[in-house]
Amino acid sequence: MDVFSDPRNIDATVSGFLWILKLTGASAVLALVLGVILAAMRVSPIPVLRLFGAAWVNIFRNTPLTLIIFFCYFGLYSTLGLSLSEDLNLNIYWLGVIGLSTYTAAFVCEAVRSGINTVPAGQAEAARAIGLTFAQTLRIIVLPQAGRAVVAPLGSILIALCKNSTIVGTIGLMESSSVMKDLINSYGNAGILIFAVFAGVFALLLIPTGYLFGWLANRLAVRR
Amino acid sequence: MTERSQAGELSGTDRPLIRLDGVNKWFGPLHVLQDVNLSVNRGEVVVVIGPSGSGKSTLCRTINRLEPINSGTITFDGQPLPAEGRALARLRSEVGMVFQSFNLFAHKTILENVTLGPIKVRKEKPESARQRALALLDRVGIASQANKFPAQLSGGQQQRAAIARALAMQPKAMLFDEPTSALDPEMVGEVLEVMTSLAADGMTMVVVTHEMGFARHAANRVIFMADGQLVEDAPPAEFFANPRSERAKDFLSKVLTH
Ligand SMILES: Nc1ncnc2c1ncn2[C@@H]1O[C@H](COP(=O)(O)OP(=O)(O)OP(=O)(O)O)[C@@H](O)[C@H]1O
Ligand SMILES: [Mg+2]
Fold first, then answer.
1. Partner-chain contact A131 B89, CB within 8 Å
2. Residue A144 is nearest to which of B95, B104, B107, comparing CB atoms?
3. Which of A33, A72, B80, B175 matches a 20 to 30 Å C-alpha distance to A92?
4. B42 vs chain A: nearest CA distance in angstroms?
């Protein structure tokens, strides 16, 4: 029987990609929130916060993601006993989300920070001069103008995150690449087809994402 | 020092609004403000002139603590400048500042630029902030530009909008750092006109400028700065007629010839 005419294989494939979407979705939200907070820390006037932000970026940006994911499983879960769900799969899922968002937040932070640096210093000065607080200045004046410069790199980070989420397969989640490996093991002669289908689905998901972010970046442009 | 001992007894409107005492500021090894003493009374218009790099901008920016100082004290309306946080933000809201490069918020309309402070800092109702903003834009002569973005306005219009934005906070004093230096010559007049009318209305102003005409006609005092020091402090007529220091004479001979 053909690989993709067996409904069980279709189900496994769909479920694999659903895990990828769920990993990407949750990690993207967490990484975005965390990344913006870290960027705010890095530009804040408080030295301790700046140090914390810089440390986070330097540690997690320079550690292979595989190591971080392994640490989440073997360190946080096996050794420290951090269990995030009764359900085995959900536990691995959430451990994966922690690892992915910790790692991705470092990149989001740098994208946001370099976006902030494209906003002329005079904008923040004028904001402080009328009495806005640091947080208000960032939220109302600087970040909205950093938008264009931040959105395009954020798109790339999101795409990388989506692909990176296959790494959670290494700690036992049946996400797409693990499903693919199983299928290739069972249907050796259809290997190329299986590769093509999985790669095709990723392309189908990610190419529009890239265009969407390009379009958003142009819409958010600020005239000077 | 008699002035200092009196300061405690003076109260309300008699005491200086802005007062710098022994202020020093370094940028690394560079001593940009050297033991600066200055007091500005309510309603007074003080023009600061001096060669490039003498510390005029820095002086101006220390008054609302956009630049922190290394030693000395600055008091505004009787209170020492707060070091940070909300108290500092509140102080800044009482001191209007106008920059050489306008610095209007590029992603907001002119009207939004003017209403932002009143709404976000003073928690004023949007409608009343809008009414006041429109009146201020009218006063500076750009009411018809209210819904445009800064990039759509000429330099002179942008600077007048920036003045309206500062005025919307109902500041006790206004700081101007070379407000006309980035403008094409034909737009200098319209901005100076607004500033002159503010001065006539009794606004306390510290103005860094190279516009000697404005200094002569609108200032109560002219301060000449050189190398981080206040070298002269005199009424304009006296200063321009006979500057005492060599440096001021030299400076004036250069700026007044062209
Ligand atoms: N942020 C800074 N870091 C280091 N040095 C600075 C900084 N800002 C100003 N300076 C230096 O301090 C000195 C005084 O600068 P300031 O801008 O106050 O001069 P100014 O009188 O306003 O000059 P200009 O007429 O050119 O505007 C200059 O030598 C300048 O190079
Ligand atoms: Mg200057």
1. yes
2. B107
3. A33
4. 20
State in Å: Cα B56 to ligand 1 middle. Answer: 8
* B101 vs A contacts (CB less than 8 Å): 122
For the stretch B84-111, pLDDT in tens is 788 888 899 999 999 999 999 999 999 9
Strand partners, B205: B45, B174
DSSP states along A49-107 = HHHHHHHHHHHHHTS-HHHHHHIIIIIIIIIT-----SSHHHHHHHHHHHHHHHHHHHH
Window 179-208 of A: residues touching B by CB (8 A cutoff) are none
CB B92 within 8 A of CB B65: yes
Number of domains chain A is built from: 1
* pTM for the model: 0.85
Task: Say which CATH number the domain at A32 has.
Answer: 1.10.3720.10
Query: Of the candidates A123, A132, A141, which has its C-beta nearest B89's C-beta?
Result: A132
Q: Inter-chain contact A125–B99, Cβ cutoff 8 Å?
A: yes
% of chain B beyond a pLDDT of 70? 94
Report the alpha-carbon distance of residue A180 to residue A182 in Å, rounded: 5
Mean model confidence pLDDT for chain A: 92
Domain that holds residue A144: 3-220
A34-66 pLDDT per residue, tens: 999 999 999 998 999 999 999 999 999 999 999
